Amino acid sequence: MAGRSVPVVILAGFLGAGKTSMLNHLLRRNRGVRIGVVVNDFGAINIDSMMVAGQVDSMVSLSNGCLCCAVDTEDMDGMLDRLVRPDSDLDVVVIEASGLAEPHNMIRLVRASENPRVAYGGTVLVVDAAAFGDTLAQHPEIGRHVGLADLVVLNKTDLVSDEVVLDIRELLREFNSRAPVVPVSEGRLDAALLFDAQRPTEPSPGEQLTLDRLLAEADDADESHGAHHHLHEGYTALEFTSDAPLNPRALVSLLEDRPEGVYRAKGFVHFAVPGQTRKFEVQTVGPHIRFVSRRWDAGEERRTQLVVIGVGVDEHDVLTRLRGCVVGDEPADENAMLGVHRYTVAM
Ligand SMILES: Nc1nc2c(ncn2[C@@H]2O[C@H](COP(=O)(O)OP(=O)(O)OP(=O)(O)O)[C@@H](O)[C@H]2O)c(=O)[nH]1
């Protein structure tokens, strides 16, 4: 007896659009819904899973590559089988794709599952209102991603004017006239839109046709380009770990003078400053820098872990510059945190 099926929702969106922020918001406002998540990060250190951990009913995390590249369905099947088995008692599974994933491949992988408890529950696309224009210009294939969405969350509306929000809505409509577009900030999507909407567990016949057609178009597009083109081609992720603390002033000036090609950085930092006892989450998306002050868990090793993602990044240069932020014999002075505080937001 297979029992009831569990909708599997794909949460997609370009690097730094706000997927993890939205997932964390939904996990906090889960309305009693038990949520399992699959977190896929592009870098070898799965920063996303660290940012989601602790709030979720069940999690599988996958790092160092894109889930969309799984050559066969076995990887995905294995993960979904674990999450939807009856004793996990989940109501919904959310797959947070890496910021460079191809949503149509993810959809295909979920829909190919032979587990009768797995039901494709639709695709939610998070769009960064401040970056969308540039991202689309650089990666026109993102338009196709918009076309696959069942719901578009237009995030970071705090960073742009109302006119820009309207313009982006128009632009999004050109690629997808069927999906609702919901403007939000900080990923604060009303959980009812996802969990109470009573989506059909399988797409309705009309939707299915549309989706199949879109997938077929995506395949055609791939073929017409000769090779199977992925958004993440050209992007590299590098990791930096340090047990020795970092000088906040040096790190802030590195982030402000971002190395060429770097688009995204994220992780946790251990600063060495007298009287400073907090762990700092750091995130950059394009020119935007953000720190969040966090607490070290009991017994957690004081360590810096960063992932840096970009195109044509000079890995040696970035790592050398990061190593240059490690505190030497001279500890940083108390005022060294001022730069960090300038970019610190209360969460
Ligand atoms: N100003 C502003 N910043 C936001 C908003 N939503 C998210 N952020 C910040 O943007 C950064 C990236 O957000 P994430 O939620 O990690 O983005 P993501 O899509 O999961 O990123 P990747 O998984 O790396 O692709 C973080 O510093 C967030 O705090 C928003 O609405 N406004």
UniProtKB/TrEMBL annotation:
GO terms for cellular component: cytoplasm. CDD domains: CobW-like. The keyword Hydrolase applies. Pfam families: cobW, CobW_C. Residues 235-326 form the CobW C-terminal domain. SUPFAM superfamilies: Hypothetical protein YjiA, C-terminal domain (SSF90002), P-loop containing nucleoside triphosphate hydrolases (SSF52540). GO terms for molecular function: hydrolase activity; nucleotide binding. It catalyses: GTP + H2O = GDP + phosphate + H(+). Coiled coil: none annotated. Keywords: Chaperone, Hydrolase, Nucleotide-binding. It comes from the Bacteria. The keyword Translocase does not apply. InterPro entries: CobW-likC_sf (IPR036627), CobW-like_C (IPR011629), CobW/HypB/UreG_nucleotide-bd (IPR003495), P-loop_NTPase (IPR027417), Zinc-reg_GTPase_activator (IPR051316). Belongs to the SIMIBI class G3E GTPase family. ZNG1 subfamily. This is CobW protein. It comes from Rhodococcus rhodnii LMG 5362.
